[in-house]
Structures are given as structure tokens and as C-alpha cells.
């Protein structure tokens, strides 16, 4: 990383941004000696809230804060940015059809994609969090053709870490070894960041008594592993909303921080290194694992130093393969909807 990193956070007055800002400004993503030039973008109705966030940032007197700008001007916000965190989207409201949700978000992602194209650093790294994150990412990518598709990603690290957390709790309960999420590695989330996602613990390992060991015997609960774990992870976002009456923010921000740290950051992490992988939604170029080309799809990835590679050659169980078909079908349908909305204006995705 350069001495100063220029970062835009859209949805800058929102809940996730509020939890994410300390990660950015305390060196937890870009390292303890990288200063931050932070731009918070939001829409006009959030202008006052945005001012309040800037006051709080100033009051925090972060050592690494080079400058902070709050703006509703997209061009100003994206000027020369090296990292773009796209949190701002149109949330699903009660009674809203998927088509309506995609329609609203296509417009926002078009605006932000065009801003990336016109104003951002050509090597800008982008993470899309606003839902439907995978398809939003595809739309933003489409509108920023001079930035490599490899620089675009959607967040599934939240689902990945939910899976790690649940596995750590189960191993602690069943094996009498007290472990935490940092002792779980090589989980995979496949597909869409939605309830069709495929949480896969087949390759997961736990660090018990100094040795990485296969997860299934340590969980010692085949029924839970086969039948309960997958829906628990798939529906965790909804469970948080039901409990908090708000969607996840603390954990989402933490996941964004880990996603970026492992991809573009310089700090060491317990989730990167030889033979280790995490989950990120990236473009499915080259048909990896038989997934159709041109979808933003969550895969196991090895990422560091600004590069991210899909980990190839993992075995896929029959059960996981069946679940993959559903998440592929959902993403194809989302892409179709987005394409027809865009085609009404110009070309296809
Ligand atoms: C989450 O996974 O917590 C969120 O994506 C859920 C949501 O719909 O906001």
C-alpha cells in the first residue's frame, strides 16, 4: 500500500459504514503506517447524518486519518479512489418483488459503476455489499469497462465467518476442546449472498491440540452437520434482522474489513497463507467448477497483495452439487432481470 490510501465508502451515513470506519482508520485493513484519505458518499436526505459522522471521526482523532470528506457528489467521492466499498443500495421493503429490488439497485450501481469508470484509479479494488450484492457487483462492473473485472468482488465473507463461528461453537460443545473461530479454516461459501448460498464445511478443519484436523469427527453430530448447519448459515442474516429489527452491521463491517485486509491489506491474518482459503464472490471466468461464465459467484479464494485466485480442484460432494444448481439458477435469473432492465436502455450484461 502507498503512504496514503484513497477510499470511498458509499452509504457513508449508514449502519455498516458506522461500524466499518474504525477498522479503516485504525490501520486494521491497510496497515498501521498507511494514512487514509476517506470519502463518505450518501444521498441528499442523509446529508446531516453524514455531517455528524464526520464530526465523530474528527473527535476520534485517529492517528491515520489524513483527510475525510462527506459528500453527496459522486464525482468528488470517487476521484482517484484506490478502494471502493459499495454499501449504498436500495433496501428491500416489505412486499417488494425481486424485480423491483433489482430495478432500483441497477440504477444505483450504474451510477457508481460510471463513477468508477470516470473518476477512480484504474487499479481501484471494489467490494460490493449492498444487496443483491452479486448482481449489483456485475452491474457496477458492466459500467466500468476499463477497470479489470478481477478488481470487482461482492461480499460473502460474512457468510463464511458465520460458518466458522458456528463450527467453532459446535466443536467446543462436542469435543471438549475449547476453540474459537480463528481455529477454523477452509470453509467455503458457494454462489449467491442470499438464502440460496451453499455453505460447505466439507474441507473445513479445526486446530485442536496444535494440529489441523478434519471437522466432521470433531463436530461429532452428523445430523447437525448435514441438516441443520446449512440452513442456519443461509438464514442467519434474516435471524439477525428478526432479532435486531435491523440488518447486520457490526458483523457485516467486520467481514468487509477482513475481506479487504486479506485482499489488498498488508496486515497478517489467520486466514491467509499456504493451503488456506476464504470465500469471495468474483467473476466466474473460465467456467470454474462448472459454474457458468460471467456470473459474480462466491468461490474459495486465496487472496493477498491485491491478487485473488479461485482455489481449483476441491472435491464437491453430490449434496453440495445439487445445492449449487439452485444458487446458479438464482444468479442466472437475477442477471436476466438486470440485463433486461439495462437492455431497455442499452446493451446486455
Ligand atoms: C446479511 O446477510 O446479514 C444481510 O445481507 C441481510 C440483509 O438482507 O440485509
UniProtKB/TrEMBL annotation:
Residue ranges annotated for the Lactate/malate dehydrogenase N-terminal domain, each copy included: 5-150
Residues at which NAD(+) binds: 42, 105, 129-131
Entry EC no(s): 1.1.1.37
Family: Belongs to the LDH/MDH superfamily. MDH type 2 family.
Listed Gene3D superfamilies: Lactate dehydrogenase/glycoside hydrolase, family 4, C-terminal (3.90.110.10), NAD(P)-binding Rossmann-like Domain (3.40.50.720)
Domain of life where this protein originates: Eukaryota
Binding residue positions for substrate: 92, 98, 131, 162
Domain Lactate/malate dehydrogenase C-terminal: 156-338
List of catalytic residues: 193 (proton acceptor)
Molecular functions per Gene Ontology: L-malate dehydrogenase (NAD+) activity
Listed name of the protein: malate dehydrogenase
An individual GO BP term: malate metabolic process
Lineage: Eukaryota, Sar, Stramenopiles, Ochrophyta, PX clade
The keyword Oxidoreductase belongs to this UniProt entry's keyword annotation: yes
Pfam families named among the record's database cross-references: Ldh_1_C, Ldh_1_N
UniProt keyword annotations, A-Z: NAD, Oxidoreductase
InterPro entries: L-lactate/malate_DH, Lactate/malate_DH_C, Lactate/malate_DH_N, Lactate_DH/Glyco_Ohase_4_C, Malate_DH_type2, NAD(P)-bd_dom_sf
NCBIfam families given in the database record: MalateDH-SF1, PRK05442.1
Amino acid at each position: 500500500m502507498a503512504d496514503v490510501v484513497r477510499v470511498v465508502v458509499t452509504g457513508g451515513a449508514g449502519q455498516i459504514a458506522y461500524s466499518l470506519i474504525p477498522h479503516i482508520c485504525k490501520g486494521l485493513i491497510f496497515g498501521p503506517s498507511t494514512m487514509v484519505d476517506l470519502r463518505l458518499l450518501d444521498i441528499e436526505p442523509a446529508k446531516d447524518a453524514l455531517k455528524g459522522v464526520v464530526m465523530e471521526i474528527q473527535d476520534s482523532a485517529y492517528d491515520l486519518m489524513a483527510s475525510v470528506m462527506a459528500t453527496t457528489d459522486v464525482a468528488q467521492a470517487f476521484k482517484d479512489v484506490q478502494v471502493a466499498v459499495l454499501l449504498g443500495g436500495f433496501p428491500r421493503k416489505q412486499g417488494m418483488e425481486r424485480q423491483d429490488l433489482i430495478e432500483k439497485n441497477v440504477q444505483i450501481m450504474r451510477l457508481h459503476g460510471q463513477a468508477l469508470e470516470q473518476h477512480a484509479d484504474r487499479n481501484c479494488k471494489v467490494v460490493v455489499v449492498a444487496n443483491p450484492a452479486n448482481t449489483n457487483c456485475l452491474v457496477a462492473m458492466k459500467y466500468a469497462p476499463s477497470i479489470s473485472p478481477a478488481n470487482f468482488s461482492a461480499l460473502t465473507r460474512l457468510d463464511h465467518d458465520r460458518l466458522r463461528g458456528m463450527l467453532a461453537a459446535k466443536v467446543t460443545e462436542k469435543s471438549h476442546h475449547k476453540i474459537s473461530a480463528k481455529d477454523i479454516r477452509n470453509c467455503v461459501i458457494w454462489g449467491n449472498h442470499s438464502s440460496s448460498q451453499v455453505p460447505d464445511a466439507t474441507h473445513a478443519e479445526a486446530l485442536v491440540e496444535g494440529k489441523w484436523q478434519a471437522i466432521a469427527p470433531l463436530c461429532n453430530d452428523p445430523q447437525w452437520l448435514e441438516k441443520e448447519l446449512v440452513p442456519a448459515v443461509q438464514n442467519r442474516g434474516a435471524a439477525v434482522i428478526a432479532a435486531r429489527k435491523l440488518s447486520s452491521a457490526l458483523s457485516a463491517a467486520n467481514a468487509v474489513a477482513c475481506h479487504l485486509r486479506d485482499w489488498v491489506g498488508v496486515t497478517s491474518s489467520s486466514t491467509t497463507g499456504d493451503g488456506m482459503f476464504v470465500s469471495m464472490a468474483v467473476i466466474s471466468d473460465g467456467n470454474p467448477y462448472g459454474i457458468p461464465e460471467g456470473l459474480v459467484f462466491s468461490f474459495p479464494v486465496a487472496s493477498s497483495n491485491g491478487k485473488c485466485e479461485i482455489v481449483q480442484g476441491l472435491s464437491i460432494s453430490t449434496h453440495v452439487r445439487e445445492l449449487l444448481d439452485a444458487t446458479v439458477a438464482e444468479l442466472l435469473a437475477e442477471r436476466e432481470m438486470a440485463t433486461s432492465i439495462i437492455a431497455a436502455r442499452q446493451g446486455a450484461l
